[in-house]
Amino acid sequence: MRSPLLSPRWIGVHLGILLVAAVCTAGTSWQFVRAFEPDREVITNPVEDLADAVPLDGLLEPGEYMHPETFANTAVTVTGRYAPRDTLLVPRTEDGVPGHDVILPLVTDDGAAVTVDRGWVPEDGAVPEVTADEVTVSGWLLPPVSDGGFTPVATREGTVERIATSLLVNEWDHPLYEGYVILPEGDPAAEGLTPVPPPEPPTGFTVNWRSLSYTVQWAMFGASALVFWVLLMRRELADARRARNAEGAAPGSEEAPESEDQPAGAGS
């Protein structure tokens, strides 16, 4: 006997459940991906951000701690005068070539200074002069470079181990803003030097709880549809078994009353 689950009606039910399962799987996958995608506000182009640079003194005060996840990589603008005599070199290898980053303080009108990384120069390369006139620069604010857990090493005069405010306060007689600013290509102070690459766009993400809740809803709806499908099939098979049992028991049930009405045998 053909299974009742292969009837035209049930074939339609099977196809409908498969369609629901496919839609729920696609919806679950889509919402899960959206739940962990970076917000549109986070996906930025650092170069384009320079057009919307904000004044540094609107973000930080001299000596104030800069949380890396709050202000790092922000495009800022600063007005002041360079102090060429305070130029320092920071050892750094560029594409396997030893050299130095050229840093110096940009002193604002209130006497505070921000560290500016003009760019990179090869070992024993000439450092171009920089103007002492008042300038307004735009660049990206980066956090201080950590020591990476290594023991500091001695450096020769005119150099510093890394760009860190904790080290530079001992070199310059100015209250310093935390972090340092790297200049874009084309800035006059970066001419003749290899510009430091702009920071990469943020790669972190914020969980989109709404999409995550939709993910759970889609998954639960799909699971409910599958459970309902299984229960329907079990009920259909149980009904079919009862119907077959009833058909098989029908002849015996008609003879049973006659045997009960037969008279007792002689001699009873």
What would your notes on this structure say?
It is a multi-pass membrane protein. Residues 242-268 are annotated as: Disordered. The chain crosses the membrane at residues 212-232. Keywords: Cell membrane, Membrane, Transmembrane, Transmembrane helix. It holds the Pfam family SURF1. The protein is an alpha+beta fold and 268 residues long. It folds into 2 domains: 1-41 and 204-240; 46-190. Helix content is 35%, strand content 21%. It has 5 helices and 7 strands; from the N terminus they run ααβαβββββαβα. It has helices spanning 8-35, 46-49, 68-71, 165-168, 209-261, and strands at 54-55, 74-82, 88-94, 97-107, 113-122, 134-142, 176-182. The protein has a 5-stranded mixed β-barrel with strand order 2-4-5-7-6. Strand 3 and strand 4 form a beta hairpin. Helix 1 (8-35) runs antiparallel to helix 5. The longest helix is centred in the C-terminal third of the chain and has 53 residues, at 209-261. The protein is rod-shaped. Residues 258-268 have low confidence and may be disordered.
